[in-house]
Design goal:
single chain; 15 helices; disordered C terminus
């Protein structure tokens, strides 16, 4: 049996690390060809020694040079974003795992899809900012996108082989993050924002989970990936994180996917689809589950989710702007430049300003990229103005 040849872009992040575990677990079926990161030299060198890929990519040239000295030419090392593109479209791989942060991997994803490959997509921002273009490319070249995301993978499983006209609603569950009981506090400690009750993730996505922007991004992903109207996508708070999502059909029946909250399961689902194989995840202990709770989302408490729905209704330009503004605002919060409650304010003001400009929304990579750059610059300017005002108010 020929092994599926895989490249993992973003191998040093939490998803990338779990993906390497899954590939090693199924080494009789999966072959690791390449791993990639930006500049995490120590970690990617350890991964190279442990998992033995054929090549390593570090997009930062200085990091690549450092890795060459550490690995002593045992493994081929490439550098630059063009190396990502070259490997993504190479005949040497069958499946690309895209787990790089933000939209840095969009070019590699498009190139992989243009060669008809499978792309296991863990990066929400790519479908949010470039989703219509990505799905158009996927359909044109007959590529395949599989979502490495507990909620989106759950929907994929519930919808598999079913007529979309029979679907009434997609129901996305949200853990609610640390603040689901009372809504967003104005100025919580960074440590409390990053203390997610269920999942262990990177800092950016953990902040997004606290604001529920993460759920907003998933709503946009789901609409684009499954071609479902936004009005047919509902979100609910489910603190136990056992029911990962549900699909309600026209007859009132609901199908749900349940499992322990472990990202190795949706990763394996994507890497082995349509097969089902034994995984590293232990069975769900039904005899010890005492309750599964569901609560409505208060959109006044979580304005980021409301903004995501509004951007989706407004179209491709708006979701691109939303994503760019959110990335800048979250980065500013993590760097202690703005208060936690200011995140949705920056996003909403950027959305309003950029959409007022009424530039023609061209569905091209260059057009969306320019919108992304302008939105990021505007969000930064808002943050700088706010910090300047604060400085002027300080006692001399």
């Amino acid at each position: 049996m020929r092994k599926t040849r895989i490249a993992v872009f973003g191998s040093t992040g939490s998803i990338g690390q779990s993906a390497l575990e899954v590939i090693a677990h199924l080494s009789d079926r999966l072959k690791l060809v390449a791993i990639a990161a930006h500049q995490s030299v120590e970690q990617i060198s350890l991964q190279a020694q442990k998992y033995k890929p054929e090549l390593v990519i570090l997009t930062d040239p200085a990091a690549a040079a450092n890795a060459r000295s550490q690995l002593n030419r045992q493994i081929q090392i490439l550098t630059g974003t063009k190396a990502l593109d070259r490997i993504a479209e190479s005949a040497d791989i069958d499946l690309l795992i895209m787990a790089m942060s933000g939209t840095a991997g969009i070019s590699a994803v498009l190139r992989a899809l243009r060669t008809g490959k499978k792309v296991a997509l863990a990066t929400k921002e790519i479908l949010v900012a470039y989703g219509e273009l990505v799905m158009k490319t996927c359909r044109r070249y007959r590529g395949i996108i599989l979502p490495i995301d507990s909620e989106l993978a759950a929907l994929h499983q519930c919808l598999e082989g079913r007529d979309k006209s029979t679907v009434r609603r997609l129901i996305l569950t949200a853990s609610g993050g640390p603040f689901w009981r009372k809504g967003l506090p104005k100025n919580p400690a960074l440590s409390s924002v990053l203390r997610h009750p269920t999942w262990r993730m990177g800092r950016k996505i953990t902040v997004d989970s606290a604001t529920l922007m993460n759920k907003g991004l998933e709503v946009i992903e789901a609409a684009r990936l499954f071609n479902i109207k936004p009005a047919c996508i509902k979100t609910v708070i489910h603190p136990e994180s056992i029911v990962h999502s549900m699909v309600e059909f026209q007859d009132g029946s609901i199908l749900a996917q349940l499992s322990k909250p472990d990202m190795r399961l949706p990763i394996q689902y994507c890497l082995t689809y349509p097969q089902r194989l034994p995984s590293l995840v232990s069975p769900l202990p039904f005899d010890s589950i005492t309750r599964l709770r569901f609560f409505p989302v208060n959109y006044e408490w979580f304005p980021c989710l409301r903004l995501a729905y509004q951007a989706l209704a407004a179209g491709a330009l708006a979701t691109c702007v939303l994503n760019a503004a959110n990335e800048i605002a979250v980065e500013a919060f993590l760097n202690r430049k703005i208060a936690f409650a200011t995140i949705p304010v920056i996003i909403e003001n950027t959305l309003v300003a950029c959409l007022k400009q009424k530039r023609k929304n061209r569905l091209t990579f260059a057009g969306l990229r320019n919108s992304e750059i302008r939105a990021a610059a505007y969000a930064r300017s808002l943050i700088e103005k706010q910090n300047t005002r604060k400085d002027k108010c300080l006692p001399q």
